[in-house]
Amino acid sequence: MSLIITDECINCDVCEPECPNHAISQGAEIYEINPDLCTECVGHFDEPQCQQVCPVDCIPHDPNNVESKEQLHAKYVKISAAA
């Protein structure tokens, strides 16, 4: 499943540069994660990098975008091929 940034986000700017898929961008009020680009860092790292650097722990799994590790890897392959 992809990740989501909650309202607890303090706009500290540390998550965006850590995302290898460029899935994180500044939204109207807080950072947002594009579920079409989020692979939870599958294909790049063992753990989602945004979660690792977030100082307020506001990046949980998105229950509206449930995906298996296999689906996340397939998305990674598709994104990598398009790059």
Automatic annotation (TrEMBL):
The keyword Glycosyltransferase appears for this protein: no
Pfam families linked: Fer4_7
SUPFAM superfamilies xref list: 4Fe-4S ferredoxins
Gene Ontology molecular function terms on file: 4 iron, 4 sulfur cluster binding; metal ion binding
Origin: domain of life: Bacteria
Domain 4Fe-4S ferredoxin-type: 1-29, 31-64
GO cellular component term, pick one: cytoplasm
InterPro entries: 4Fe4S_Fe-S-bd, 4Fe4S_Fe_S_CS, PSI_iron-sulfur_center, YfhL-like
Keywords noted in UniProt: 4Fe-4S, Electron transport, Iron, Iron-sulfur, Metal-binding, Repeat, Transport
Protein name listed in UniProt: 4Fe-4S dicluster domain-containing protein
